[in-house]
Design goal:
The complex is a heterodimer of chains A (about 220) and B (about 100). Chain A is mainly alpha-helical. Chain A has 7 helices and 2 strands, in the order αααββαααα. The termini of chain B are close together. The chains are: A mainly alpha (about 220), B mainly alpha (about 100).
């Protein structure tokens, strides 16, 4: 699976994104308030993107569960040909659904030809979001398994278990990405409140330190 | 809950119930994700409350709350946050606010 911790490339260098990136960068002092608003807009896009990917992964987990139940029936050597045919149709539909799901997530940033990946829309170096390619795990799920292949796929280290592990890992990492983005949202909100009507020249030094505490972690991943 | 000088902080029950939800989530990935999300929202509110308090809050209390918020929020950026840390901090907040 899974290539993680890649810096998201900067696809759309719009003015707001540039400003957001500038304010999120390590070297930039906090503010001013209009900078925070640009950051907020970029964060909202990132949160929506990661949130969508998490919903898709939840659905993928459900589909893997469906596949497991169907494989158990296919692995049953006593099943009649009619029963097997019906189960196979369900299996094919669930497998197709899983593939479509990955494609839809891959299209979240409108540019990726393959794999499962999310993008925040924030400049490179500002927020690093995990990216995942679950195609190998999903490709190992056979298209039309025989009873023997079904049993092999159900094994503890079989294709289904591997796909489940890959999905779970992607979920955990994306959930952490979501929390990192929300932390910046929390911080922005607090800074905006601390600035009040904007008459203060800069927020208290403690806010600067708090921001510094939260910020390098986004760079380090 | 109002601590003093008009500073409004979440109730002791909010800290306690979030701690309990974290413990109850166990190994359920979705429940854990939601519980840590609740924890983040709760401490985001702490951050906002401190920010909105301006100069009305004693500086030592403000600094302590900010440090605690930074500790909690920073750990939530981990792929596997430290469950014991969050439960301990929340219970301490519950106890501290309950006395006030």
């Amino acid at each position: 699976m899974a290539e993680t911790g890649r810096t998201v490339p900067f696809a759309l260098p719009a003015g707001a994104d540039r400003e957001a990136a500038r304010c999120l960068g390590l070297a930039h002092p906090l503010g001013p308030p209009e900078g925070l608003r640009a950051v907020e807009a970029a964060l909202a896009r990132g949160l929506a993107s990661v949130g969508e990917a998490l919903v898709a992964l939840d659905r993928a987990v459900t589909l893997i569960g469906d596949l497991r139940a169907l494989l158990e029936r296919l692995a049953d050597a006593d099943a009649t040909a009619t029963e097997r045919a019906a189960v196979m149709r369900g299996f094919a539909a669930a497998r197709l659904g899983l593939r479509s799901l990955c494609e839809s997530v891959a299209l979240l940033d409108g540019s990726l030809p393959r794999g499962l990946r999310v993008i925040t829309g924030i400049d490179a170096g500002a927020i690093v979001v995990s990216s995942f390619d679950l195609r190998p795990a999903i490709a190992a799920i056979a298209e039309a398994p025989s009873a023997r292949v079904a049993a092999a796929m159900l094994a503890p280290r079989g294709a289904l278990a591997e796909a489940e592990r890959a999905l779970a890992e992607a979920q955990r990492r994306l959930a952490a990405d979501l929390r990192r983005l929300r932390n910046r949202q929390n911080l922005n909100r607090a800074l905006t409140l601390a600035w009040g009507d904007g008459s203060a020249a800069e927020p208290p030094a403690l806010w600067q330190r708090l921001a510094a505490l939260l910020r390098p972690r986004a760079q380090a991943r | 809950m109002t601590v003093n000088h008009g500073f409004i902080l979440s109730s002791p029950e909010a800290f306690a119930s979030t701690a309990e939800r974290l413990l109850a989530a166990g190994d359920d990935l979705v429940a854990r994700r939601k519980a840590f999300g609740d924890q983040q929202a709760l401490w985001g509110e702490v951050l906002a409350a401190v920010a909105a308090s301006g100069d009305t809050l004693p500086s030592a209390l403000r600094d302590d709350l900010l440090r605690l918020a930074a500790l909690v929020l920073e750990d939530l950026e981990e792929v596997e946050p430290d469950l014991a840390l969050h439960v301990t901090v929340n219970r301490a907040m519950r106890d501290g606010l309950g006395e006030g």
